[in-house]
Design a protein that fits this description.
- Helix 7 (177-197) packs parallel to helix 9 and helix 13 (314-320) packs across helix 14 (325-336).
- The chain has three domains: 15-151, Beta-Lactamase (2-Layer Sandwich); 175-288, no CATH class; 292-397, Orthogonal Bundle (Arc Repressor Mutant, subunit A), CATH 1.10.10.60.
- The protein is 65% helix and 8% strand.
- The two termini are 42 Å apart.
- Strands 2-1-5-4-3 form a five-stranded antiparallel sheet, with helices on both faces.
- It is α+β, with helices and mostly antiparallel strands and 398 residues long.
Amino acid sequence: MQTQRRNNPPTDGDATTLMECGIDAQTFARLDAVYRQHWSIPLQVTCPDGRLVHPITGRGRDSEPLISVRHLAIEEALRWGEPAVEPAAEGMIVWAVPLMHNAKVLGGLVAAIAEDVVFPDGTMSTALDIRAACHDLRRLAEEANLTNAALLEARRSESNRERLRAEAIHTFKAGSSYDMRATYLLEEPMLLAAIRKGDRPQARAMLNHMLVAMIHRAGDNLDLIKSFFMELVVMLSRTAVEAGGEPEELLGTNYASLVQLARLRSDEELSPWLSDILERIMNSIHRHRKQSAPDMLSRALQFMAEHCCENISRDQAADAAFMSPSHFSRYFKHHLGQSFTQVLNQMRVDKAADMLANSQRDLKIIALETGFPDQSYFTKVFRKYRGMTPAEFRKQAK
């Protein structure tokens, strides 16, 4: 994203000031209209320190408490990679997305609403989904290339890792066989996800972490550890079959592994035993995955068809297909001749065409309900796939 800079400090409300905060007036008007349409909440643009730049209300000096809360909302969104709701003075709540050029914060795209609108009658039951509203603000800013999407994604991943680490530490401190199961249940989904994707290094790391954690919790109770790993072998084999492994081969691996496990007499023997199981399972998936590739592609297409009107990503479709994102992209383009985005847009256009022909809904609403951020982009994509605008298509269908 490129911005124009100038040396002299701007005044509040100046159009150049808006540009220096990382957004032009036309883009702001478009995003503000979309956000109002969806959430009935107006947007604001501020400096990085929270001072209001646009729109200027004409009500006098900006409130210092509100300035401080807007500044905090921008910093927290940058810290966590996602807008965070902050309570403000004057009965308001605020959330924001940093407007950025590379790693530099130029300003903030801010939403604010009165608390009594969100929590009517003073109850804890909300009148709108604030979490979804926060997510939608970030999505709009990213799609308009107003913020550093890669940096925010990295911050979200980092905060998620910290959360999982904190949960694991809490589990370790609790100290009983029940908490050992909690540790197992915390690690197992991530291990199975790595196996589905064929990510051997990640699967090895997860198994090692799980082994160390469970030995730490169980102490000298080797039989207790073995009982958990008996359960794990069954889960690994089932997951491997889903990911394309040969069932008969994996059944033999499963049986042989459990026989070996029963003979182990020390913690030291568990690590090579686990490594051997993992290698056999991953090798089976690698050898036989090509035979089941059409099924994997079918899973991805089914996932896309079911969720095409939502804000889904290539990585989510790859997860549904049990593939790594990079392998999924290559395989998808090779077999379908189109990219993930092209096929997703085609699905969205098909949904929109059906709604245009069979309803009287406003074009803006149809755009939002079929996964497009605004009517302008919807029209552009629709014309590309159907050779005419949505309005022209509706007229022809009638």
